[in-house]
Amino acid sequence: MSTRRVVLVVGSGRSGTSTMAGALKTLGLHVPQPEVAADATNPKGFGEPRWLVDLHDELLKRSNVQVSDARPRAWLDSGTVSGDHATRDRVAAWLEQELAGHDELVLKDPRAAWFLGLWRACADRCEVQTSYVTMLRPPTEVVASKQSNYGRMGAGSDRGTVTRTAAWVNMMLHTERATRGQQRRFVRYADLLDDWTRPVFALGEAFDLASVKTAMAVDIAEVHRFIDPSLRRASATWEEIGAPARLRDLADETWQALDALAEEGGDTASAHERCDQLRVAYDDQYAEAEAFAHSSVLAARRDAAARAREEARRDGASGGAAERRGVDRVPHAVRAMVPPAARQGLRRALGRERGGQQDRDHDGGGA
Prior knowledge:
Layout: E1 5-10, H1 17-26, H2 50-63, H3 74-81, H4 85-99, E2 104-108, H5 116-125, E3 129-136, H6 139-150, H7 157-179, E4 183-188, H8 189-194, H9 197-206, H10 210-213, H11 217-226, H12 238-241, H13 245-261, H14 269-315, H15 320-327, H16 332-335, H17 340-350
Helix pairs in contact: 1-11, 2-3, 4-5, 6-7, 7-13, 7-14, 13-14, 14-15
């Protein structure tokens, strides 16, 4: 049996994934270099390989998916893009190169959840055991942390709250489904901050990680210095965040279902069934929201087209560049609500090629 291991740290941004990746790295697992540089939102570092982030950014752009995307359809789009042979050959070659010098890797990037099928297939090709640790943090804390670190989304703060809350539900429920049947564990961020030794050493045993199981006292002391219990700075209530009642209730139920998975023996068939029910409920709620917003989408499209024509007339230009600038005036949250079947026609009408601005949400271990 192969002794080579790859641990994928997954979950929503601002859920403590950087803290987990940093702890595993300090105990001896290898984070492929170079890493994304630390910044003000995460001064202790992200624990993200630069190559990994660049790959996922490329694939997200090709699939027209954001890092924090609330659309259920986005999972199909990202999976289709990452399934081609050229991409799998490229990822498998990189993975094999990193494993040539290190038997145990830790790979962390909030974008990775969109491409777990790709990583599982490439790990199988390289004959390496893949394990998944999903970090859990209440949705109110995640949304509050994103608002604090990345600012408000769009012109309306309420719209940004809805988008981020919905994206959390979408991300977490599909991550649970994508890792089901695999070697996995769920870890609460609060438990990691309270006493990191319990969840981390439990992972070492469950995943048979030699680096963790044989960690030296000096490395353990370094993790104690790395993990600061005061990191849990973002705290908020739904009243402060302002999410709609139906979405708030669904997010709360999703949190309760995921939180139960973190209990010893909690990863059961009945828990999976509950997550499936919540995923269906979310899909239905999102489809209803799309239907309600359709008139607003059409109005925004007419307004953008009219503005583009007026700008083209005023500038005396051919209209192509002006129309592209016109569509950019349509709020992103409105454009994101366009049903997939209508999106191509919308691009043609506004003279815009496939693509889009990527959500800059990252996960900070310091959150």
